[in-house]
Amino acid sequence: MKSVSKFLVVLVAGVLGASPALAKKPKPQPVPVAPPAAIPAAPPAPEKVASVEGITEYRLGNGLKVLLFPDQTKQTITVNVTYLVGSRHENYGETGMAHLLEHMLFKGTPRHKDIAAELTSHGTRPNGSTSWDRTNYFETFNANDENLKWALDLESDRMVNSRIAKEDLDTEMTVVRNEYESSENSPLGVLFKRLLAVSYDWHNYGKTPLGARSDIEGVPIDRLQAFYRLHYQPDNAVLLVAGKFDEAATLAQINAFFGAIPKPARVLPELYTVEPVQDGERQVTLRRTGDVQIAAIAYHVPPAAHADYAPLQVLVDIMGNQPAGRLFKDLVETQKAATVLSTSLPLAEPGMALFGAQVRAEKPLDAALKGLIADVENGKARPITDAEVERSRTLLLKQIELNLNNAEGIGLELSNWMGMGDWRLLFVNRDRLRAVKTADVQRVWSTYFKASNRTTGLFYPTKDADRATVPGRPDVVALVKDYKGDAAKEEGEAFDPSPANIDARTQRSKLPGGTKLVLLPKKTRGGAVVATMALHFGDAKSLMNRGDVGPMTGAMLMRGSLKHTRQQISDELDRLKARVDIGGGSQGGAVNIETTRENLPAVLTLVTEVLRQPAFDAKELELLRSERLASIEQQSKEPNTLAFTAFSRIFAPYPRADVRYVPTVEETIADIKAVTREQLVAFHKDFYGAQAAEIAVVGDFDPKALAEQLQRELGDWKAPKPYTRVASPYVPIPAQKLSIETPDKANAFFVTGTAFSMRDDNPDYPALVFGNYMLGGSGLKSRLFARIRIKEGLSYGGRSQVQADENDDDGGFLSYWIYAPQNYAKLQAAFDDEIAKAINEGFSAEDIAQEKNGWQQGRSVSRSQDKELVRALAAKAFNDRTMAWDAELEKKVLALDPDTIRKVLAKYLVPANFTAVKAGDFAAAAKTP
After folding, report:
1. 151 found inside a domain
2. Does residue 349 contact residue 134 with C-beta atoms inside 8 Å?
3. Which of 5, 504, 694, 923 could pair with 877 as two cysteines, CB 3.0-4.6 Å apart?
4. Same structural domain for residues 632 and 679?
């Protein structure tokens, strides 16, 4: 449950956003915790409002808008409810209330008393998010009638019957406060908040959805209840159902569950505050602990529904694109900055466009700031070119088209546009992007990006007032009336994601050169296809003393080949509507591809060129070096980075020259500085080849033609140095306790765990995996999460996980949590108590039965996602495994009894063997009364 903005998601992602995923998760019939109520007699039939590109809108008699987006290629359904209320609708003393209420709606209703348990038992992927203009809740689950009926019953019930109780607020407030504290750890995130606050005089867009700490702590329960009753009503909500379902039957169920809710008699208040025109440059300065300097500038821009927003998007990309963007060319390539960024906030009312640069400590910040201002406000001196517009337009349209191929992911995107006025604005804006002319981009540049409309870290006086008048919100109803859009996407096949069916449909072979192929052809929405390739390098001896050469080699591959520059590669991938990620580490490389059937051959040819013929351009190497140093230096004092690094080093007792060694932050910086172009060239020549590789492809493609192409392109590609897997055997590690001080950090981080001898074919493995799932791996319902977050409100989030390899016996358990440093003793006590209960008391048979159901359904949901499935197939191919291994694991888990689970947990989770590392500003916490 997060407060969301595009800028914050991209720039202020914390350790939780990068949490390791659980193993793939399958699908049985759910055992609901709270059985759905019987469907009441249906109210009058819904009214069909509009249909655009496969998405159809209906209107119920009580005002609820319903969007149906059937996609028979998925074996999942996503139910998403968007309420047209966000932080923009909060009053004085209520900042953060919309986000706090989002959390409270997971606390239950009189009928659905334990929503966390229900979400888990149905194997869902749930969450909620809050922005300035809207709040949404969603869950993705296996496509079957029982699950869909349950989800519609749940969402209709908590729309008007949620338990907004004082005792729940008391614990959840501390969780939300912890989330706020976590956001305070990032200087870039805090600077963003300051820019908004200074840019807006009166409008609520000047406050982020997380709100003020004092409001989070002090909001009275009666005001929260009143806010809920006012805004959480059918006439202020939009329900989206996407995935595999029967449209007519689903609409009837929706009408029965939601249509029975009376249309409210109240009238929503009309918001009338209009931000005045900014009349001069504004200044904000932030001083906090850190190593990387930041310069940022912000400008008021039109709302997303305005016709100027599309050319504005193009302009923002022209500025911030990498490596073609003007900011990149003028600041990064000239070494004035390490990295640059640009974004615009798409909002219902006039929003903001922001530009920034990160500058290493030894570089002057003024030069970067002056360069930012010169580039962004220099519209007349350096006019926009047609080529720049076409490149950015191609990128933006590619992103939209690929997102529209994903029935699950489109829910959040449509939620944002609903908050901005209407879901069809997504397509209106796409059409506007198609029609953008260079003159349009030039016009918006000169209209909005001027000194008097700027908020920055410096103050510049001006004699002549040159103000930017930003247009207000258009008439959205008139704008989207009778809009038709493009023809609906081609539909794919209904695919059964069971292990048996996947194996039956999968074609496995080996190229003459040694590359293993795992091909799963199937019809997909829009002809989508995904592919992954894993390369394996060298051996323990040949990889010694390589430092950061391997990772830097992998990072350089997409930065230019002997035939194409970095920019040409980027442009070609945009033209081919492809997303490609290529990287490498010390022991292997990886390629991930997402494209369409007709473009796959050309994409593979380009990827092969990049892999086999990298240029290792000296200039690009220096740019990469600067970017990586800035990134590492920025994280060098973060509690999560320091704690995880220290924890990992304890469990990797290898010498500095060993490829398995875990370097300190300082050693990583030294390694990056020491890498030379000659080392990269030599590493690529010695280790890169396809004789030890796996390639997996899932989606709409011709398997025979693909195999022939891969043989032509990769069949003769062999590395001179042979490959032998570097083993990582179990090494007993004495328990250690380590505390790291991180001054001026509001949030702390805790990681604990133990190592033990185990491979994933160990007879105890199924019980350990499932026991951990119940203990700390299943999210909302897990014992640790329920205790630490939900009951005691000590942490915004954390989890536990079990690690076991297919080849080595180096197994382990770890758990990690963010928290306020003054709460460490309470967090440790709660963690220790739950571990003791798990190994001494175990879990009840009833809880185990429900959790087994959710665990299996969750694995099925994972196999339904092509991106996850293709990675799983490639990983299994390394040891010549099939999905039958998954089926056997599920069979063993489903046969587990309570006593076996408890005994296995007690065998491996020995508290005396736990190593624990905590990082935070504990000195300051000790001084706080």
Report:
1. yes
2. no
3. 694
4. yes
Same domain, 377 and 296: yes
Cβ-in-10-Å burial (0-12, 13-18, 19+) of 343 comes to buried
Strand partners for 756: 811
Look at residue 305 and tell me whether its pLDDT is greater than 50: yes
616 part of a folded domain: yes
User: Using CA of residue 726, residue 730, residue 736, residue 741, what is the dihedral sign?
Assistant: positive
Query: To which H or E segment does residue 344 belong?
Result: strand 339-344
The count of domains in the chain is 4
Indicate if 320 and 415 belong to the same structural domain.
yes
Q: Per-residue pLDDT tens for 619-647?
A: 999 999 999 999 998 888 899 999 999 99
CA distance 347 to 208: 13
β-bridge pairing 748-757 and 579-584? unpaired
* C-alpha–C-alpha distance, residues 768 and 800, integer Å: 12
- Running DSSP on this structure, what letter comes out for residue 525? G
- Provide the 3-class DSSP secondary structure of residue 137: strand
The model's pTM:
0.85
In a domain, 13, yes or no: no
- Give the residue carrying structure tokens 């509507």: 577
741-776 b/e (C-beta count within 10 Å ≥ 16 → b): ebeebbbbbbbbbbbbebebebebbbbbbbbbbbbb
How confident is the model over 672-683, as pLDDT tens digits? 999 999 999 999
Residues linked to residue 654 through DSSP beta bridges, in sequence order = none
Residues 399-416 have pLDDT tens digits of 998 888 877 778 888 989
Can you list the alpha helix ranges (DSSP code H) found in 78-186?
Answer: 97-104, 115-121, 145-161, 166-183
- Tokens 């230019």: give the residue: 560
On whether the CB atoms of residues 237 and 27 are closer than 8 A, the answer is no
Same domain (yes/no): 211, 339: no
Instruction: For residue 80, give the amino acid letter.
Output: N
CB 300 within 8 A of CB 448: yes
From residue 506, give the alpha-carbon distance in Å to each of 108, 476, 906. 43, 48, 40
Cβ proximity of 128 and 138 under 8 Å: yes
Strands 65-70 and 237-243: parallel
Name the phi and psi angles at 910, rounded to 5: -95, 110
C-beta of residue 677 within 8 angstroms of C-beta of residue 620 = no
Query: What is the 3-state secondary structure of 726-743?
Result: CCCCCCCCCCCEEEEECC
**Two structure tokens written together for 803:** 């690690």
- Helix (H, G, I), strand (E, B), or coil: what is residue 590? strand
> Within 13 Å and on the Cβ side, how many CA atoms surround 66?
29
User: Do 384 and 460 belong to one domain?
Assistant: yes
Query: Is 403 in a helix, a strand, or coil?
Result: helix
517 and 421 in a single domain? The answer is no
Give the confidence band of 489 by pLDDT, cuts at 50, 70, 90: confident
Q: How many helices (H) and strands (E) would you count in the chain?
A: 34, 24
Q: Does residue 76 form part of some domain?
A: yes
Question: Which residues, listed in sequence order, are joined to residue 594 by a DSSP beta bridge?
Answer: 530, 579
Q: Are 533 and 590 in contact (CB under 8 A)?
A: yes
Q: State the helix-helix crossing angle for 845-864 and 884-894, rounded to 10 degrees.
A: 170
651 and 618 in a common domain: yes
Q: Quote the tokens at residue 661.
A: 């060694």
The residues, any chain, with a CB within 8 Å of residue 352's CB and separated by 6 or more, are: 195, 196, 199, 205, 298, 299, 300, 301, 344, 345
Cα–Cα distance, 51 to 34 (Å, whole number)? 35
Please report, for the domain that includes residue 804, its CATH number.
3.30.830.10
Q: Domain containing 407: what range?
A: 282-472
Kindly state the tokens that stand for 556: 């350089």
Q: How far is CA 697 from the centre of its chain?
A: 23
- The encoded tokens of residue 664 equal 């300190």
Question: What is the rounded CA–CA span in Å between residue 182 and residue 180?
Answer: 5
CB 459 within 8 A of CB 489: no
Conformation bin of residue 229: beta by default, left when phi > 0, alpha when psi is -120 to 50: alpha
